[in-house]
Amino acid sequence: MAKVGYARVSSKEQNLDRQIEALEGVTKLFSDKISGESTDRPQLKTMLNYIREGDIVVVTELDRLGRNNEDLTELMNNIQQKGATLEVLNLPSLKGIEDVNLRRLINNLMIEIYKYQAESDRQRIKERQAQGITIAKKKGKFKGGKLKYKENDPKLLHAFKLYLDGETEKDIERITGINRRTFRRYRDKYDINR
């Protein structure tokens, strides 16, 4: 049995030190400096491949693992399917409960509550951001983000061709390097359907 730590911050400029210090007692530590909006994170994938039956995955807070309910549920299922368990350091301690099944049940209930909280926080952030953009647009101060790909970009055109030829989004991402969510936005923008 190993304690496997996972730490994450949203950008390269942010610091992992606080989480690394809190995860000091783990056997192995994996960390990403990338948004939690997607589960497509190199060290997260490596960690999920690394864990074995009986291991304990330790995170400082649940939102370090993921930001939305669907992704968190999928990640927790992956951890459980490997026979490992999840420990979230900022959840109340369950050490006084001797019945393993009761402790697991209470832990899972608390995690579900925290998942809901993380999803709600994310939605509130998006709402505030949208309100700020609307106000900035009214004042003429918001120009919008720069498009990553132009309509005639060879990489984007290649991705569209692969899509129309029946390739999966996952394979298209692997082949072209275009993130699945980004690719969906461009498909919607240019009305590419199969």
List the helices and strands and how they pair.
Layout: E1 3-9, H1 17-22, E2 28-33, H2 42-50, E3 56-59, H3 62-65, H4 69-81, E4 85-88, H5 100-138, H6 154-164, H7 169-176, H8 180-189
Parallel strand pairs: 1-2, 1-3, 3-4
Structure commentary:
This protein has 194 residues and is α/β, with parallel strands linked by helices. The chain folds into 2 domains: 3-119, Rossmann fold (3-Layer(aba) Sandwich), CATH 3.40.50.1390; 154-189. The chain is 52% helix and 11% strand. It is built from 8 helices and 4 strands; from the N terminus they run βαβαβααβαααα. It has a 4-stranded parallel sheet. Strand 1, helix 1 (17-22) and strand 2 form a beta-alpha-beta unit. Helix 6 packs antiparallel against helix 7 (169-176). The longest helix is centred in the middle third of the chain and has 39 residues, at 100-138. The radius of gyration is 20 Å and the shape is globular. The N and C termini lie far apart (48 Å). The model has no long low-confidence stretch (mean pLDDT 86).
